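Hi P.,

Sorry for the delay on this. The queue was packed all week, but I finally got your sequence through. Input first:
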Amino acid sequence: MAKSKSTATVFTVFPTAWGAMGAAGGDAGLSRVILPHYQRDDLLELMQWDHPGARRDDAYFEGFAAACRSYFNGQAPDFSGAVCELPSAESFSGKVYRVVREIPWGQTMSYREVALAIGSEQAARAVATTMSKNPLPLIVPCHRVIYSNGGAGGFSAEGGAALKLRLIAHEKKQS
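Then the structure:
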């Protein structure tokens, strides 16, 4: 696993109904989110390894952790106010992340629809590539981006496409 390019100075590991999650960030806001997959102690070790020099600060992430717990308990959380380390709004990935961030709970868009929304009609594959590098799942809900034919598409988080489908089903069930 490659080291994060984040400027994280603090991190946390916290419980949710689906398991432990991790987050890292610093002065620019959240820079990384790890969805439930790992055992708590393994995730804590991963966060320490991936963000050398960062210190654990659960209080810094208190609001975010509460929103994630709400999410996994079936309530649509509001991540819109979360301050995040996102690419420039003028960059391709910055445009993609901002469009995807606005996809409502329980809904999906295709990679092609995201490409059209940013004015790059032929860029569906590039959108998919950008989504595969998303360091902020849930905040930038890349699991809500699917193939035009309704297929799941890929998901780079641990748990892969099965986790993506589980997240989509979780939201649709609660909608």
